[in-house]
């Protein structure tokens, strides 16, 4: 006996994403992210207080990787300069490259990965808004941190204010340290390279890239250890939200694309002409009444058999 599917349970094949719809979406989200960072500057004193509070928490937990890493990068230019290039550029190069690779070579996984990234980015923006945080490099020098990007600014395009191009530091929010999306996005890249890369080299890169990024953000005094931990947590929450978000979008898309119910028509209906039915041999409704005449009653002889009916003998 052939097996049939219950109506409404068929799984529709999703069309492959198109680059001309994906690119504007990603640019829009990144634009909102950048604009949100600028709008969520917060007051400087509050941001400094939050940064010092993080240092106190780390001291209580006996965590202090930032100071030794920062001293190492400050003392050894052969480490500090590449670290500054790493911080200033790879954040904006590797993540789009992984997105393009997924789109072209791992299309079945692209939509889930893209949704994960965008959801996490918006969560990070909420963190910047609610908790503006001064990075270690902007604290008072008495706290022992050196801004390596300012120290080695002559080697790169960035200035002493931020990782932005020289002279454009005022266009960035320098108090968006919590969470570290440098670490969060690097973790996203690493997980996908490990899971979908398929070669030993991509698996190694999937481990090395987020680990080195975490070391770089602390060694350059751009983030605290807890900023990096928060970046990992944000990516975890974004990963949990990705599937529900995709289901919600699918339901909305199905509702919007559902065709309207066709208008009711009389075609094929047995009820015509104000409820009068036709019978065999009749061409128009009420033919029977016209043949019977107004005086005919229910006991009148049957003369309504139609034009082809035989006439009774007289």
Offer a few descriptive terms.
single chain; 314 residues; mainly alpha; 10 helices; 57% helix; 0% strand; globular; disordered N terminus
Report what the structure shows:
- The protein has 314 residues and is mainly α.
- The chain contains ten helices and no strands.
- The chain has helices at residues 19-39, 44-60, 66-75, 77-105, 107-130, 148-151, 181-196, 200-219, 225-257, 287-292.
- The model is unreliable at 1-13, 268-274 and 302-310 (pLDDT under 50).
- It is found in: Membrane.
Average predicted local confidence, pLDDT? 78
Structural class: mainly alpha
Number of strands: 0
* Contiguous runs where pLDDT drops below 50 for at least 5 residues: 1-13, 268-274, 302-310
- Strand-residue proportion: under 5%
User: N-to-C SSE series?
Assistant: HHHHHHHHHH
Shape: globular
Give the N-to-C terminal Cα separation.
63 Å
Helical proportion?
55-70%
* Helix run count: 10
Oligomeric state = single chain
| Sheet of most strands | none
Taking Cα atoms only, what radius of gyration do you get, to the nearest Å?
36 Å
Pfam families: PAP2_3 (PF14378)
Domain Inositolphosphotransferase Aur1/Ipt1: 53-241
Biased composition (Polar residues): 266-280
Region (Disordered): 260-314
